[in-house]
Amino acid sequence: MRIPGALYAARGRAPQSEKDVPFQEILPLRLKNTVSGKADSGSDVACLQEMGMLFACMKDNEFVEKYCHKEIQQFQNCFKCYMDRKFEAKKTVNQGVVQPGNNLNYKQLNKYMRRFPNPV
Amino acid sequence: MSKTMALRVFGLNLVKTNRSLLQNACKATALPAGQTVAEASYATEVTVHASPAAIQKQKVSKAMKAYLKRATEHDEFMKTQHLEFQIGKRHLANMMGADAETFTQEDIDEAISYLFPSGLYDPKARPAMKTPEEVFPARKAAEFDETGRPFHSMFYTGKPNFFQLLHEIVEETNKLYELEERMLRRGIKPDENQKLEIAGFQVLPKDQLETQLVESIADIEYTNFSNSMDRLIASPYAYKSKAFIERYLKPLMDQSKQLEVPKPKIDEQGRQYITTYECLRKTARADVTVRMPGTGKISINGQDVSYFEDENSREQLLFPLNYSELLGKVDVEANVEGGGPSGQSGAIRWGIAMCLRSFVDQEMIESMRLAGLLTRDYRRRERKKFGQEGARRKYTWKKR
Amino acid sequence: MAVFYRIAIQSSIYGCRSMSMFPKHFGDPLRKKDMEDLNKSELTKFYHIPIKAALNNHSDTVFSDEIKLKMMNYITKNGNKALARGLLSRTFEIIKRAQTERLHLSPTDKQNVNTNAEKLLIEAVENSRPLLQLTSIKRGGVNYQVPVPITKKRSYFLAMKWLLDAAFEKDKKVCLPERLAWEILDAAHGQGRVIKKKDDVHKQCESNRAYAHYRWS
């Protein structure tokens, strides 16, 4: 959106003149067709809350497991789910197999964008 | 003129590799074509119609010339190989004292393993004599006409047959999708009874697909192929293109072998008995006889179960008997040689299980198969590799 | 003159097979119990799949048990499995004797005394299975002991290892089966060294709970 120069004038600063400072396209004004995989490694820490609940219960009951049956069950189920998901992801997501959904891995995104690149 | 030359060359050798060219030539000159259409239709599918006069006047292209040269060379080579093979076969037959005319490939293999015993571990490394067709892989026929113009629109992909196949699969899939759309709009559901059963099949493995297409395929291309096949098979109307799909499926198991159960014979005491010879496991070899109304007597090389000193081997012997609930109802006699206690007991276990098939019902046989009793355990000791401590284990890494 | 070719024999059905293992599409053998659990339609799925041969330490009897087999493998030293089998059966004998004696000594509560040695072993292993484990992770030059959840398989392994470690740690006069029998009996009743070790691990994990988010594995 263009901002009228008068607005800057009111604040005491003259806008740059395009003649004096010509616009230079240092980098192309277009997004790249790839994303880097750096930020996508994700947090590997799973089941922290369940673990905390388990610890609280264990401490209360002096580490006797039979009183914390529910917590243990929850914790183990959570970890099992996490491992299963990781295993599944190894087969599909990390290979870059594109599947419908909005939560895409960087490999999937790259594959997708290669198929539908930005118009030049 | 050039065409007549080509015809002469190919007329000499009716070899599979240049069948298509020959067909084309035959068509052009209206000669009777005496050979059958190839089972893999790829190389032969493309036909050239009588070329217009303008093209006929043109010279034969360099590519065609080179191809013709290669083809004649290959034909000559194959001819000599065939000749040598025939001579070799005759010699072998002579040596074995058999008739050369009726000497089959099986006889050849037998003769070779008898005359040239090999201690080499890998069967691939042992001497063999096969027909030249088996040894030298089939080559593609010419993919372009005399002017050098390719027949196939995807010639320049380098793998026209493979990409043609991919196109065909996608075409089939799209057809099925359209059908599904139409049926949905009419409110008709796919027929559940006709549903394609692919439980016992797998998509053609890479090497077989390669031989079928006469093209080498990269791994990723094979994944593309299998993915698109999966997509086609997953369609609810897949049974509509059953014939197409089945061309690229392979059964996982030979069912007919499972059903052959030998009939028990009757011995002099009027008892049913059945003998399994050649029960192999590791280096042990046994033959096992099971007699039906019995008291559970087991004799191995004339001794009873105490032939095996360790408990595990004894347990192995009883496994099939116990599983089929015939323990104490049959007698077992076994002769075993070679190998150690584990191999011997494994051999006898397999022999007993194979014999017991004749005395139990079909359901129990299937159950025994699922328990892994009827599978011949052909695993052998894996050889030690050089540069390694054993078969798999590497030496401890030392920096210097 | 005969011509011999060194050729790669194109295998007819299964592609290239290695002699030391079964091809990939072979299924694992099922136990009778598994087969009963599956219903008809699930069983027909196996109808077309070739099955691997049963291993030579398998036998589908009431006495065969996964944990027992594993325990036997863990006892084994230098591949002498026959000896390990003997030791384990001796252990079971000692347990059986001890429990029977206990049964006769306590006429009041005969229901509470378990004389099934195999069941006792399973119970002991189940009782000594840990939930968490400490791994040391280096962050900024400092090693932190971080509690991590462990898989089911590893928890079984640790339980059996601890049982055996406790048994191997003995004076020379007492033989292994005897010591192992007492460890199993103790663990089955929720006491003894192994259970204490498990509780110690849990306590350590609890005291290091602040580092739990350092985990990266």
Helix vs. strand class of chain B = alpha+beta
Residue runs with pLDDT of under 50 for 5 or more positions of chain C: 1-16
Largest interface, by Cβ-Cβ below 8 angstroms: which chains and how many residues each? B-C, 61 and 48 residues
Structural class designation of chain C: mainly alpha
Helix content of chain B: 40-55%
Query: What's the Cα radius of gyration of chain C?
Result: 24 Å
- CATH class call of chain C: Mainly Alpha
Radius of gyration of chain B: 30 Å
Number of helices of chain B: 15
Number of strands of chain B: 7
CATH topology of chain C: Ribosomal Protein S7
State the strand order across the main sheet of chain B: 3-4-5-7-6
* Annotation field: number of helices of chain C: 8
Count the domains of chain B: 3
- The stretches of 5 or more residues of chain B where confidence is low (pLDDT under 50) are 1-51
Number of strands of chain C: 2
Shape of chain C: globular
General form of chain B: extended
SSE topology string of chain B: HHHHHHHHEHHHEHEEEEHEHH
The oligomeric state of the chains shown is: heterotrimer
Describe the structure.
The complex is a heterotrimer of chains A (about 120), B (about 400) and C (about 220). Chain A has about 120 residues and is mainly alpha-helical. In chain A, about 45% of the residues lie in helices and about 0% in strands. Chain A contains 4 helices and no strands. Chain A has helices at about 5-10, 50-60, 70-90, 105-115. Chain B is of the alpha+beta class. Chain B has helices at about 1-10, 20-30, 40-45, 55, 60-95, 105-115, 130-135, 160-185, 205-215, 220-235, 240-245, 255-260, 310-325, 340-355, 360-370, and strands at about 200-205, 250, 265, 270-280, 285-290, 300, 330-335. Chain C has a single domain, classed as Ribosomal protein S7/S5 (Ribosomal Protein S7, Orthogonal Bundle). In chain C, strands 1-2 form a two-stranded antiparallel ribbon. Chain C is globular and about 55 Å long. In chain C, about 25% of the residues are buried. Residues about 1-15 of chain C have low confidence and may be disordered. Chains in contact: A-C, B-C. Chains B and C meet through α5, α9, α13, α14 and α15 of B and α2 and α4 of C.
